[in-house]
Amino acid sequence: MPRYNRLLFFILFTSISMLSTLSRSQTVISLWSTGKIPNDLQNRSIREKIEVGNDSILRISNIVFPTLSVYLPATPSGAAVMICPGGGYSIEASGHEGVDVAKWFTSIGVTAFVLKYRLPDDRLWSNKHEVGLQDALQGLKLIRENAAKYKINPDRIGIMGFSAGGHLAASASTLWPKAKELAAFENWPSADVCKPNFSILMYPVITSGPFKHAGSFERLLGKTPSQDQLDRFSAEKQVSELTPPALLVHATDDKGVPVENSMMYYNALRQLRIPASMLLYENGGHGFGLAKKLKGSVHSWPQSCHQWLIGMGYLQ
Question: Does the keyword Hydrolase apply (predicted)?
Fold first, then answer.
């Protein structure tokens, strides 16, 4: 190979390698580095499953060891977001509702963390309804504790969730002041360390009432939950003055999770004068992720989200 061609090949190979590296998570953090996972029944006969279906959706299930995957922008803005993929609390769609979204955030200077959270499973966990929330709060705590390392402003850390992951994000946003009531966090000096400064809720599961997504609540709480459990995990009923501002994104033709879920959470925030914005689209259905393959205005929701982050002062 002539010297010029070798040099050109080297430059091309190096460039491709760098792009490949930037597209991947640079670091994977164990949520529970001490090895003591809360509510663990120590059943190691169940193995984590990763599969891609005919619809090209990446699905992860049987999660035993929860993690945070870190995606670093070339030029950090100081903002960060933890992403909770959806999947009805039975799987996590960690591709189009996780990694793809994290890469988009890095393109606008936001440090992104994809949460692989434990799913409710009586075979693996006691009090299965607690485990996802424990992981989300622990993830926010780790991000804030490592803010300097990742060049993050600890006052600009948000949480984002899709569908059932949106329910988890809304639960963390409303229940974080009660974190110390969970056994895993009873020794924390303060719950403030796990507070999200903002939330982005994508076609979220919110209510346990008439517009509920029955499958998500059955997976989370079982077939015969008490009214207290239903109320505690009905996010619109848990909004308080300590709930952070939110951006909600939903399509009115969503046949999986009715748009009323977003509307109820939005109204609960507005009643307490907590800043809230909502992007509603006529078409889009459910599970559209970045909406790259869709036509119409829903295709532009990431740009609108970008402007919301700027307008709210989270992205400078």
Answer: yes
